[in-house]
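Hey, resending since the last one bounced:
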Amino acid sequence: MKHAITQHVKDNQFIGLGSGRAMTCLVRELGKKTFKKNLKFVVTSLQIGIEAEKAGLFVLDAPQTEQIDIVFDGADQIDANLFMIKGGGGALLREKILMYSARKVIILADSSKFVDQFTRSVPIEVSPFARTTVYRNLIGIGAQIELRQSATGYPYFTDNGNIIFDASFTFILNPEALEKELTCIPGIVEVGIFTRRADRYYKASSEGLFSIIAFRKDGPYVISP
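The structure tokens again:
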């Protein structure tokens, strides 16, 4: 966390914050920095917004007209091509909006999130009005569907008022093609497959060490910290 902040956070930046445990730790580190009053933040979830305000960070409600300088986020899985599955925390729509709005994107994840091929379900944000139609379309392309529920057993609603289907596919051989196919289904608001690569991926080990990974034409490569 400290290395990512030191290397990438500069005075007077407009910073986007994703969701999850990695972001909670990052926010607490940012709150310790003496330059924090020179920074502005936009967050993707209420949880991180509350943590940021506790840390004394200046949080805006929306990106407004300014381009975001840098976005920090986590990931549920990262494959061998550095594509990602995100949305386990339910903020996939806002996370993707921030990612496409930023000059630079930094992903923070532990080594267990890095896999050769995706093995987990894909979160899909759906308009409640289109629930049945989307369900049938997803079944039609071979997906197994679970409606995400809250701890009380009721449907989980995102901060945007939508529901989430967690869709399992036998194999995801072409994430880019699947992302495009899913977003073409009417009623699907956003898909938790992220095929726009980040600028840097921080891969943390259980021993507290980390490596930095980036992508070039011939594939991923490791940058020494």
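The chain has two domains: 2-114+195-223, 122-192.

Sorry for the duplicate.
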